[in-house]
Amino acid sequence: xxxxxxxxxxxxxxxxxxxxxxxxxxxxxxxxxxxxxxxxxxxxxxxxxxxxxxxxxxxxxxxxxxxxxxxxxxxxxxxxxxxxxxxxxxxxxxxxxxxxxxxxxxxxxxxxxxxxxxxxxxxxxxxxxxxxxxxxxxxxxxxxxxxxxxxxxxxxxxxxxxxxxxxxxxxxxxxxxxxxxxxxxxxxxxxxxxxxxxxxxxxxxxxxxxxxxxxxxxxxxxxxxxxxxxxxxxxxxxxxxxxxxxxxxxxxxxxxxxxxxxxxxxxxxxxxxxxxxxxxxxxxxxxxxxxxxxxxxxxxxxxxxxxxxxxxxxxxxxxxxxxxxxxxxxxxxxxxxxx
Length: 339
Prior knowledge:
Layout: H1 3-18, E1 22-33, E2 37-48, E3 51-63, H2 73-85, E4 93-97, E5 105-109, H3 117-122, H4 127-144, H5 151-156, H6 167-182, H7 188-200, E6 208-210, E7 219-222, E8 225-229, E9 236-238, H8 241-246, H9 266-275, H10 283-309, H11 316-322, H12 325-337
Helix pairs in contact: 4-9, 6-10, 7-10, 7-12, 10-11, 10-12
């Protein structure tokens, strides 16, 4: 996908989709990219016969057809539509196009703001955000867990646990299978964690829509706090306590002193979640998911390390993240020693 291709293809498609008389696409630039997705920023000016011209700041998300992905363009677009309908703050999806370019893509609003966790923790400009975001994050997560599991949404998500299998054991089985396939060396701390997690797996009395990667780093924020939730490709049907545990994983605290994203207490986060209509929080279940989250992140670091060492992904990012496995092992031992 190239900038000139985007600028040439979009005007006609947007005129047809939005009933515009003229569409101009400018300032197309690559934002980030990986093996399976490309993200582009662009400015689109829309002219209509009955209204003055309007310029929209947009983002284009492209999906490589030949690369395995957690979620394709249509599925992610469907999930974003469902999030908007549930009142979740997300970039509003505006157009899905699977055949306009060589790569399927969708367009969504571009929301300005910050996502870097260390800036939230350290910068004076975000002191106000630090004071309110714990409660905001709890309330937003309650809305996410109320996203309706319509047939369209269920079709967009990966298959859930088989009947009779708790979500905790389903996720543990998936990650243990990955671990056994990729790990080149023994990791006693991980083996201990697998045993503890199997012995203490919670039953999950209910399942809901789960974000799957709800944490600092996947939230756009400003001085006033939360603006939008990003990165929905790991969404699935699961135990709502999973998302409450994942945001408490130490790696997502970015050096902050408190367990919820480095900025808040568990008690304040849980209270805000429940006050906004979330399910009653089971602290023991959330603790299980926090332990699992550290193990999960550790396995992801091993996977990235393996992809770097094999030459499949020789970039700096997988190498640097792959070196962090020991951090997760230490954190797992600390968590298991405490309960």
